[in-house]
Automatic annotation (TrEMBL), chain A:
GO terms for molecular function: ATP binding; ubiquitin conjugating enzyme activity. SUPFAM superfamilies: UBC-like. This is E2 ubiquitin-conjugating enzyme. SMART domains: UBCc. The keyword Lyase does not apply. Residues 5-155 form the UBC core domain. The lineage of its organism: Eukaryota, Fungi, Dikarya, Ascomycota, Pezizomycotina. Keywords: ATP-binding, Nucleotide-binding, Transferase, Ubl conjugation pathway. InterPro entries: Ub_conjugating_enzyme, UBC, UBQ-conjugating_enzyme/RWD. PANTHER family: UBIQUITIN-CONJUGATING ENZYME E2. Its EC number is 2.3.2.23.
UniProtKB/TrEMBL annotation, chain B:
Residues 343-353 have a biased composition (Polar residues). GO terms for biological process: protein ubiquitination. This is RBR-type E3 ubiquitin transferase. GO terms for molecular function: ubiquitin protein ligase activity; zinc ion binding. The lineage of its organism: Eukaryota, Fungi, Dikarya, Ascomycota, Pezizomycotina. Pathway: Protein modification; protein ubiquitination. It comes from Eremomyces bilateralis CBS 781.70. The keyword Transcription does not apply.
């Protein structure tokens, strides 16, 4: 897509999301002059171990967007099987994978997917397999650590 | 004749033309007019085009099925090409019903309007049209001999929309076969006109677009604007990602239509045929590239493919399995049908394929290049020498500078897929790769197969070399060859062996002269390996791996030897052939 068309689509999506923000999310551009980097503050969903936390995510749109998928990462450390447990907080699953991405997918869908993952982690497609195993085998311990981390890193009271 | 302006008849026709602007009035006869009514049966009408039918008639769906069965010789008698088969189609639109109205001077008080109905071609049974015509007189009676035209036209419209399909339980039309092109053309062009007037929301640019600027994908019916499809497909083809040239709709091909965060089973989406890409329209050169790339991918995924030894050509040898595509408009390749599953694509896994090939070295040595028509030998890559000449495979020593440069690049900047060996270069993201060619899941660092169900286990196992290295090279595998992986990729190992063998062969050739060089090739390869450069890389190469590749090379050579174990040629001649 010509750059102008791509920027128009991004602006449209940004406009839609700012006008009607998805529940529990705040979305803004990192830098007003660059529509390719979005900052999202995602509230931990109620009755998940992340409840009360505020997680900062970075959404980077490649120049080829929407032909290539957005890149989503947690800037706030989080204890989760689908988020890499390092300083990058990378995610690599579902529609974020370039072989599964389709241009009509929207950023809103990506954000909703991320939020759904907080409610229900996907242990079958986990980046952190040890966390996934704990999630499957010892849910209590998983939730305990996830809660602690939420408190420690995501400002939960 | 009374003043036309005051005439009731004239007034009626005027008001009718206000409602139906397409009403055409006769300049010579003020009380004569024609009107064409669109015939759009709801939801559609089944039409049987029958070679033995002269006059159209209504029939039931059962009759259609019966006709198709009885007249289908393949089910009863052996088929003959001469027999013209009945054909059956569901049509949404039929050519218009032409209504010819004459209002006699006694209308409406004492005479009904004179109505003539016709269609071109006459796909309606004559009796049906007659009954519709008579209906006008009935209506005129019902309306107590007053103006009846509007009511009648309204009645006709309903009749052709859903009425006639219910005529005595007959829901389908049986018409002469000769009507087929006309009816199909009309149906198609009307559908297109309707489509062009509609408005669609393009899922890619998210803008509302008029149908005239949109394209409906032939197999799934999803609609996108032409500009977006052009951009998307052109970008994919330019980047060589021909696997993406499919319907962009995320729900397309998914039974439940749901987008989930779970990894979906591989979709059986149809690749878009090049003929349709031209209609989008895509640039001809891009579509040509698409067809060429797909052809090339198929050839490459088949390890038996042989390429033309002429340096300026490098076309593939003609292959019955994958014939070279000729016309873009008509070309249909196999994956315009549902995509092959990775297992069938990878038929002939790396372990079996070379053996098969080696076991039968004499079979079909003659190859003809599909590009330049050069006839050459599959084994020695020289011009065709006839069936009874003994020859030897060329060695890596004969790699051209260009070839080695490209191997070098491939070696430094790509990792091969463990299933199909396609070199893959990572542009960004984690090291869990899925092969763009055959969808195998593998590790970018060491080319190990990864379990699709639990691909990350490989990076979380402290015993593996790739432990905690899922995100190495996240920015992509750079052209500077900055690979942070300790050890060699399988590919690197293979190239290195080839290089070493080449050097060794040269060294032996230089030192020992002709007689010795004519000795056992296998020994020489082993000597070469011992004398070869003792690079640092080599130590890193695991013994097991080396043994494996060595074994493979030996196997190939032995089998070749077995196949050619005759005394047709002496050692001297054999040497000459080898070092030509």
């Amino acid at each position: 897509m010509a750059t102008a068309g791509a920027n128009k689509r991004i602006a449209k999506e940004l406009n839609e999301i700012t006008r009607e923000p998805p529940s529990g999310m705040k979305v803004r551009l990192v830098d007003e002059s660059n529509v390719h980097k979005w900052e999202i503050i995602m509230d931990g969903p109620a009755s998940s171990p992340y409840e009360g936390g505020h997680f900062k995510l970075l959404l980077t749109l490649p120049i080829e967007y929407p032909f290539k998928p957005p890149i989503l990462s947690f800037q706030t450390k989080i204890y989760h099987p689908n988020v890499s447990n390092d300083d990058k907080g990378s995610m690599c699953l579902g529609m974020l994978r370039s072989d599964e991405w389709k241009p009509p997918n929207k950023i809103l869908a990506v954000l909703n997917m991320a939020r759904n993952l907080l409610v229900e982690p996907n242990a079958e497609d986990a980046i952190e397999t040890s966390i996934a195993e704990q999630y499957r085998g010892d849910r209590k311990a998983f939730e305990k650590t996830a809660k602690e981390w939420t408190k420690k890193y995501a400002n939960a009271k | 004749m009374a003043d036309p302006a005051d005439d009731e008849r004239s007034e009626e026709l005027e008001s009718l033309s206000a409602i139906y602007p397409e009403l055409t009035r006769d300049d010579n006869d003020l009380f004569h007019a024609t009107l064409e009514l669109l015939v759009a049966p709801n939801p559609h009408v089944s039409v049987l085009f029958h070679p033995q039918v002269v006059h159209s008639s209504f029939c039931s769906l059962d009759e259609i099925l019966e006709d198709l069965k009885i007249d289908n010789p393949s089910s009863i008698v052996p088929s003959s090409a001469e027999v013209v088969q009945p054909e059956w189609q569901d049509l949404k639109y039929l050519p218009p019903l032409a209504l010819d109205i004459s209002l006699p001077s006694e209308y409406p008080t004492s005479t009904p309007p004179v109505i003539k109905l016709s269609t071109s071609p006459d796909y309606f049974p004559a009796s049906y049209l007659e009954s519709l015509e008579e209906e006008c007189t009935k209506l005129w009676d019902e309306y107590a001999h007053t103006a009846v035209l509007f009511a009648y036209v309204d009645y006709l419209q309903q009749a052709v929309e859903d009425g006639f399909t219910g005529v005595s339980g007959k829901q389908a039309l049986k018409v002469p076969l000769t009507y087929k092109p006309q009816l199909l053309d009309f149906d198609k062009s009307t559908k297109r006109k309707k489509f062009e007037r509609e408005t669609f929301s393009c899922g890619i640019c998210l803008e509302p677009k008029k149908g005239v600027n949109c394209h409906r994908l032939a197999t799934c019916g999803h609609v996108f604007c032409r500009a977006c499809l052009q951009d998307f497909f052109t970008a994919s083809i330019t980047q060589g990602d021909v696997a993406s040239v499919k319907c962009p709709d995320p729900t397309c091909g998914r039974a439940d239509g749901a987008i989930t965060h779970r990894r979906a089973a591989p979709l059986k989406l149809r690749a878009i045929p090049p003929g349709e890409l031209l209609q989008v329209p895509l640039d001809r050169t891009i579509v040509q590239r698409y067809v060429d790339l797909k052809h090339k991918k198929k050839l490459e995924s088949d390890q038996t493919t042989v390429y033309c030894p002429r340096k300026w050509c490098q076309g593939a040898a003609r292959s019955k399995k994958y014939p070279k595509p000729t016309s873009l408009d008509t070309y249909v390749d196999s994956d315009s049908e549902p995509e092959d599953s990775p297992t069938t694509e990878a038929e002939g896994s790396p372990t079996t394929k070379p053996t098969e090939k080696a076991a039968d070295p004499s079979a079909d040595r003659l190859c003809i290049c599909e590009d330049c028509s050069f006839a050459f030998c599959r084994v020695c890559l020289n011009g065709w020498h006839g069936d009874f000449v003994r020859c030897w495979p060329r060695t890596a020593a004969e790699l051209t500078a260009e070839e080695s440069a490209s191997y070098d690049f491939i070696r430094k900047n790509t990792s091969p897929c463990p299933t199909c060996s396609s070199p893959t270069q990572k542009t960004h993201g984690c090291n869990h790769m899925s092969c763009p060619q055959c969808r195998t899941h593998f590790c970018y660092l060491c080319s190990s197969w990864l379990d699709e169900g639990n691909p990350y286990e490989h990076f979380n196992n402290p015993k593996k070399e790739c432990f905690e290295r899922l995100w190495d090279l996240e920015e992509g595998d750079n052209a500077d060859g900055g690979v942070a992986f300790v050890g060699q990729r399988g590919w690197e190992a293979a190239v290195e062996i080839a290089e070493r063998e080449a050097e060794a062969a040269e060294a032996v050739g230089n030192q020992n002269g002709e007689n010795q060089a004519g000795g056992d090739r296998q020994d020489r390869a082993r000597d070469g390996e011992q004398e070869g450069r003792q690079g640092q890389r080599r130590e890193e190469l695991g013994n097991e791996e080396r043994a494996g590749i060595q074994h493979f090379l030996e196997m190939v050579e032995n089998d070749e030897e077995d196949g050619w174990d005759s005394d047709e040629l002496g050692d001297e001649e054999r040497f000459n052939l080898e070092f030509r």
